[in-house]
Records
---
Amino acid sequence: MPKIGIIYNDNKPIAYRVAQELAALFRASGYEAVLETGNGGLLGYSQPDRPICHTRIEHLTPPHFDETMPFAVVLGGDGTVLSAFRQIAPIGIPLLTINTGHMGFLTELYLNQLSEAAEQLLAGDYQIEERSMLTVRLFREQTVLWEALSLNEMVLHREPLTSMCHFEIQIGRHAPVDIAADGVIVCTPTGSTAYSLSAGGPVVTPDVPVLQLAPICPHSLASRALVFSDAEPVNIFPATPNRMILVVDGNGGCYVLPDDRVHLEKSPYRAKFIRLQPPEFFRILREKLGWGLPHIAKPASVELP
């Protein structure tokens, strides 16, 4: 009997209820439904006295999920979607994303569209859109202390109540550059509409094979976002005596000491989104972020008596 995976946010009662209903529908259609929460993809945080507290990227896959699954479904918001891809991207399962959260920028549809979507899904009437991901690793000398798979971004920033930091950054074989800022962001095209956008970085369409480096509150007018080939690995060296904090996808991370090195590269794993209609990125930008809405002229001024 073929299996279908369902990942849901167990902090949302509606997500749990819909997961049960969806599992019953799949079972009635002759599939085995395997349910899992999104907690397995949460990264957690290490501590200064206990820095090695990560799970290997390939070890986050839930039990009973495997490459034979034709697809999986995730019920939650963007955080659950990010967690789900950390869980299943290494085994290449396509994912249908259903919004039970707020903005749902990464989700494909809403709950009121679920019944029609399930029929379309079981009929195989969909496309798969692949998006690049990042492998993020923290090295102390030659030892990997922490690693994570990222769909959005890696952020390395100063601790609260500390001063501005310096970062020595080397992209591929190019000469290192020094950036003075509160932090730096390295993101995928998918992540260009997340934290990087708030830091002044450009929006990049998901099909462009690039990464982006964006300083956070830089101390120079010359420090601006940089877009470069995703074939180039990135090494970041803290050029400051202060301890820093590394965060991946706004979910978990670790402390970075002055002699550590953060290494980033395009992951061999890709996020596979199930699309029930042809992907239209500009429509999502307009609906979710208000980009490109028609300009409405101000009313003519009225003279007061």
Note: DSSP finds five helices and 17 strands in the chain.
---
Amino acid sequence: MKKAAFEFKLQASDGRARAGIFSTPHGPLQTPVFAPVGTQATVKAVTPAQLNDLDASLLLANTYHLYLRPGDELIAELGGIHDFMNWDKPILTDSGGFQVYSLAENRTVDEDGVTFKSHIDGSTHRFTPESAIAIQENLGADIIMAFDECASPYDLEYNKKALARTHKWAERCLSAKLRTDQALFGIVQGGIFKHLRIESAQFISSLDFPGNAIGGLSVGETKSEMHTILEVVDSILPEDKPRYLMGVGTPEDLVNGILRGIDIFDCVLPTRLARHNAAMTRYERLNLVNATYSRDSAPIDAHCRCYTCQNYSRAYLRHLIVSKEMLSATLISIHNIQVLIDLTKEIRQAIIGGRFQNFAQDFFTSKSMA
């Protein structure tokens, strides 16, 4: 198996914001980058061809869900996740740690791993750092994640215990990793506690992963608390490695994250909103089921280049929603994903041009007026 060179080349910076290129076996990632989420090897309601048209460059798939169904060994047998879902650009898989955390009463954590019950049929399963790596190696994504424990953000004593486990598990993940064509990222945890985040960022940095993730945010803390933690972590993580903020993805979150040194984002939000009849713009959300749109001949956003805005009106989209037509989820998802992809691309150019600080100021001014 050919060893991949996972190099992160920093091209420009503007304040703490960065523009770079991260090399992967399925092509380079130009950062900052937003990754649509394909939980079960599919971005809900959107085809790979449509994602290509949107110029998506990275997708995220879910280890927990694919392990349970159809099974990581079956995906490996069928050529790996790229062939399985017909996507020839980079893919990132999480470790399953957050999904196990979200199972609440249906899991038991010990020093070796986590025992949990399937949300599908109630059957019992177990993840350890070693099995999480083995599953992700079967799946075959370009970027894989260390198995970690995500804890409630305000529970100091539990966060101390979870952090110790996360650090031990990170070392075990490094030891268990066999494939040389996958970049394993470590994950910084520690809730909203600065001293724990400092400890975690220092420890994870010392393990010299090719990239580092920040987990355990957007799980109930305030935006101000998230920003404080990002600033603490940004001051410690190595600048020559990409930083990935897990599960965060409103337009405002992207701008705030990039201001604080983040390079990679993912979130289910654009497709989840679409399935609930909500269209995103950079500055607000539109509930398209509202009767006010029944005779509105305008697109969702007159400035948007997406297929939906170039071809369909708000009135048509509302008609699809009221008629319970599946096409509404597809068309609104296309638009919502395009908003986030175009925003990160514009930010990238602003960083390269030394204009990002002004861009961010204009963004927040426009948002406050929306």
Note: DSSP finds 15 helices and 16 strands in the chain.
